[in-house]
Protein 1
Amino acid sequence: MMNFRAFLAPLRRWWWLVLGTTVIACISSFLLLREVPSIYQARATLMVGRTMAVLNPNSNELFLGRQLARVYADMAERAPIRDAVQERLGLEELPEYEALVLPDSQLIEIVVTDTIPERSQAVAEELSRQLVLASPGNPESADQDRARFVDEQLSYLEVKIQETQEEIAQRQTELAEMVSARQIEETQLDLIALQDKLNTLQANYAALLSTTREEAINTITVFEPPTLPDEPVGPKVGMLVAISGAMGLLLGSGASYLLEYMDDTLKSVSQITEGLDLPILGYIPKVKALDGKAGGPPLALQSDPDSATAEAFRLLRANLLFACGESIPRIIQITSLGAAEGKTTVAINLAASLERADMRVLLVDSDLRRPEIHRALELSNDAGLGDAAMDGLDLASVMQRVDTPPISVITSGSRVEDPTEIMGSERYSHFLDTLRASADFTILDSPPLLVADALVLASKVDGVLLVIEPGRVSISAARAIIEQLANAKAKLLGVVVNRIPRGSGFPIGEPHYLSYLSRTDRRPEKDEKGTREESTAGPHGV
């Protein structure tokens, strides 16, 4: 099941591309086919030979008729027949047509395809006529005088044969009544002569009859004339649109798998845990308002404590404490591999979650280049970290108190010229010792690891929590940065996967997971000091 779901993951991730190519293919084909004129077909059927009119046709006649049918079908597509039809109908070009011999028969079917039904019927009719005229037994040939003469002779022979047969019958009757030997002998001689005459007449009749159309094999006649088509045979818009949609679906699916193959960014649990060799401590769903882009402070625990997002930060807190065990880090740096991956949101909500567990928490904005905490919490940034670290101001003078949640905050303060120099100074190390002693947990919102400030800071803090947004940073770049952290002897606690889209394959993105976490029958947490909130990692921990 997991392999099958992994196989379908690119389709789920690029569903809009698959849907777009399918819809575009369907709409484009429909608009194109709507301009294509309707196509009509007229059919005519011809028969070679007259064996079907014979009671007992022999196999040789049937075989010869089929061979002749193939010849006539080939003749129908040759230039003499085509030119004769064009000249007869006054057409510059004939529509598409074909002559087919029906399987195991002497029948030829002529199919004419055209956009004008009347023209298709006329062409099929004239093609049939020209094939009949091309046969030796056609009724309009120049040998009609000879045919008429043969017919007259056959009629004459039929009369003579009948008269001879009647005369023979009469003589036989007379012979039966004779008693004279001489008369009997003479009558018998007459009967022999009449029988010879009858045989000769019948032989001549058979010989003449074999030269007529009635006994000819090499003849062709119209068996079924073409009718005017009233229903178009194409284009079949529905079927063609469906085929185009299927092709668009295949194209979009292939493109999604190609893009997935070319995309080497971190976007799955296995890529993070196996590729980076780091545990995942938290899964945070993608919520627009939580990232501070839809108004209001990004505090999930305060704005909606029963939401799946709030529960995700509780799990992050629990997993962080479980992962650290006895050696709990006092100063935790929250950073990311790239910019704008939501590390500030994670830092604020983690600090709020730890405070609700009855811990003294200090939230510090150590991003001296692009500070965000004072904006997110709507605080003043006149004095802060830069002033305390460089000018020696005490913490009380730069610390601000936030009521919801009740945590202490130190903003970035005055802008400094060289943040890297400040982070690496001995004075800043003493400042971190002061922070370590002033709270149970100090959460540092630091710059991303793209800049040297974060790397220098990582070497001085007790632990580093890495925020990763799926699909933002490549595996190779992430490995290079983590290697730099290892060289700086930084302690990597784990990864927080942030802004997880629904149905992405991460636990928090599964519909059943979100449905369970979003239930509203959970008992509210206690905010009073001295009452420690229950925290359960459950099966969704590290």
Note: The domain at 40-134 is CATH 3.30.70 (Alpha-Beta Plaits).
Protein 2
Amino acid sequence: MNLRRLVTLCLTCVLLAACKSAPTTPAPTVTVEPTPTTVPPTPTTSPDESPAWLQDAILYEIVPRSFYDSNGDGLGDLPGITSKFDYIQALGANTLWLTPVFSATSSFGLDVTDYATIAPGLGTKEDLANLIREAHNRKMRVVMDLPMAYTSSESMYFKDAYKKPTSPYSDWYQWTNTAHTAYKSYNNVRTLPLLDHKSASVQSYFIQLAQTWLNAGVDGFRVSDADSVPHEFLKLYRQAFKRTNPNAVLLGEIWNSDPKKLAPFFQDEFDALFDVPLFYALAANPDRNGGGMLNGRGSSTDLDAALNVTTLYTPTAELVRFAGNYDTNRTASLVNQNVERARMAALLILTLPGTPLIYYGDEIGMLGSLGTGALAEEYRRAPMDWNQSGKGAGVATWFKDAGKVNKPNDNISVEEQQNVKDSLWSFYKMLITQRKEHPALRGNSFQAVASPCRTCYAYLRWDANDFYLIAVNFSDQTQSLTLDLAKTPRNVSGAGEDLIRGGTMSMPSNGRLTLTMEAREARIVHWGK
């Protein structure tokens, strides 16, 4: 979490709507009471490897309050997400990442007040149980956000221990005086007191919490600000987590562009991490538009440096590739609303090795850049634009953007793009279909192809049945690329299908293939067995 986000987090306290009535289907009981005297379990086995399904996963990140309003109260909710599973599956995503749904002080949800309840207005535990059940019925998975570096200063545990050294929660936080009136906080934000993960009761609480939610059917957690949680606890946590469900995933957020700083978190801690170094190569800055390779700035060596780091990580490490998420400006804004460049971002994220992440609305080119004031972050998390009019069924109204993001008849809505040939939505759909139908795009095969063009990038993906050539011209000029494919990892001959331009492309007998790339053009060519 960056500092700008923290500043707005302190300012933002959005009033949550009233809870919805629960459906009749009972939900798993999710009650976790702190037991300060409980000693956490001692690890007895080595952590399991990362779950194999990660390689097949296409993550779809949803901010629940912004996705779909099922009852017309202005706030997106859990039943709304469940009602749009047909849409999510039509796109091709198969794994949901829900941003924080626990009761919290602000709309961000990271400043948790109660980990055992759902934020009022988003729904109930029964709604979440139904969402998980319906997802599993459709062979989809659900990953939840778990902030566990700190709590809100409004948490009952902190409030009980503040100025009270005799509190049963006195060892939960990092106090700096004996009177418990001074404490360490995340980036010195006083409303985010840091938890003390050396405390046996804190360890027990979060292990019990994980076990409870996993037993309720959750397929894993994304741990925010994981670099503020000690490595010793993360290793212990992973042991207990994997004993409960070895097939669940632990995804860590460490916002650092240095891959060497990420590597330790793969050592018996996380299955997957967000590939922040690649994001910086692509976009340069999460809060500013127009930078990085996606905008023709920098050179191919920047991408090489970001991609050729796998030897730093453990063999089973998974990287989540993204060109935008709820902590960054939206992809379409990062590329200054250039649709060709937005298509480049989609191509890269969905054809590189690793697990691709799509932030809700990026598939239709929704806009959103960091604003100013108390609602600065909300412009990046504005309601999903379902309809051409910008309003109507399902469109949440809790955030009014004064027309800066969601405008009527702007060709940025599901209604205007879904199943429309040549739309950005259809481009995403085509790439996802290729990835799902051809294991070559899901495995770890990868080889960059040398090119004299410094603002271009070309690479290969392959297996025994399929061979892909992917090329991108990030510049604003036509480029001619001569690629030496004579020594590719497998023999390729005959005509390949040009999936974007249409038609076919023949591989020359000498393996030297020349591509004429128009300005800001993305290409993907497929040769079958």
Note: DSSP finds 15 helices and 18 strands in the chain.
Protein 3
Amino acid sequence: MDISIRVAGAAGQGIDTIGNLLSSAFASMGLHVFSTETYMSRIRGGLNWTDIRIGDRELFSGKEKPNLMVVLAPEGLELLRADAGMCSLVLLNGEPTAGTVAIKLAEEAKALTGSPLMANAVAAGAVFALLGYGAGPLHAHLERRFARKGREVVEGNVACARRGAELVEPYLGAVLPPKGVRAPSTVYSGNEAIGLGAATAGVKFVTAYPMTPSTGVFTYLASAADEFGIVVEQAEDEIAAINMVCGASYAGVPAMTTTSGGGFALMVEGVALAGMLELPAFIMLGQRPGPATGLPTRTAQQDLKFAINAGHGEFAKAVYAPGTPRQGYEITRLALETAHQWQTPVIMLTDQFLADMRVNMPALDRTPRPIDRHILADPSPDYLRYAVTPSGVSPRALPGSSAYVVVDSDEHGEEGHITEDLRVRVRMQDKRLAKLEGMAAEALPPEWYGPENAEHLLICWGSTYGPCREAVDRLNEAVAAWAMLHFAQVWPVNAAGVRARLAAGKVKKFSLVEANATGQFASLLREQGVLSECELLLKYDGTPFTGEEIARRAG
């Protein structure tokens, strides 16, 4: 049993605040929580909303239609009219309208506290009451949330929440809520989990030019800088950011940058520089619909091939794409380890859906556990920075150590000095590309979910994990014939391993689920000889998939 609550309003009305209040309070009650955000690219105005889904089982995606709606901007009601008509109840901030319960939230807050800014607490109190939940968990969360602002602010918010509950007393019972089941009480967004993963893995330098939806990781690391000893630098542009990461990596510092499509476009020369210098440059790329500025606050999976092929020339790189906040935490560490083990650029793809989704899960470990940087402690006198090895990975020493470390962006020999000897060129290029074979052999295998004897297989990557997993559960309610194969590493792919996995099953139909218009991952799997014919389930309107939608389209 689960329901979805939509809180909608104009930018600047605190929609995100209400969403976080409700998500955290519900999680503290033992409910499973999954929230998503929809917002326009503007500072004020427009219509934004947060959907908070709560249930008595683990949730993996949003719902297509809300059960309860709170509309803070009356003019937004018309835009949401179709969804409002499906709701058990619509709570409107303003004058009465047909089919709504009207409450003047700001006026109520001002009457109680002298300020309209606590209208959010009135709305939160009303939602809790409409769901039939006791006010205790909400009040406790308001205490924690506003404790640093003093008792007056805390008491004002609690009073507003009580008032919200009183105002909706005539409508209690309109929505049947799920009961708590001792779900985890800690709530993380994708960006928070990724940021914590980077901090605990030992990132000591992060630089970026802010760009939605990647900025959340950057600001999280800034907030955690003192706790984890991280230097944070807002660069003047993305070109400076990637070059600073190259410089820090050369000096032996675990470093990263965060960016989105247009910013990453500016970084590609620096990515190629890292490829030639064999530096462990780590880039988190938050995808959004393009081309150009496109829909900067919406979601997409359109940069897969761009990431794989970024940079002029040919060189090894790895590309990861976590599907959930927990995977984001774990794969951030793996991506950083891969970059340092193989001395090459590594890109991690996220998107607005993953960045802003909030879910509850067991508390993530905040203990610092630095990765192995694979740096020589005692280089030999005859050290060569680019010594040819069977794996393609050369011994790495730090500049300023006992070793003489020479690097150059031009083609170079094993010692690092520029060369135009074409035989050396071939040898060094072969050395660098040899890394791909080893990286593919160690590639993270895709995750299978569902019955082993499934005849229909949904293949997905990145943030479509949750919606596809829910779709499998929905489709299998009738006949257990569906499964999911999710890729959290999209390059390089261990093609032989994936072919063997598929050959061991009984799959007759393959469906690729992607948030783009051209089926980029399907094309990649065909190129790798993993698949031939497959159905494409594509979406590119900037909104995320839901489990309901995938089940409907696939079935």
Note: The mean pLDDT is 95.
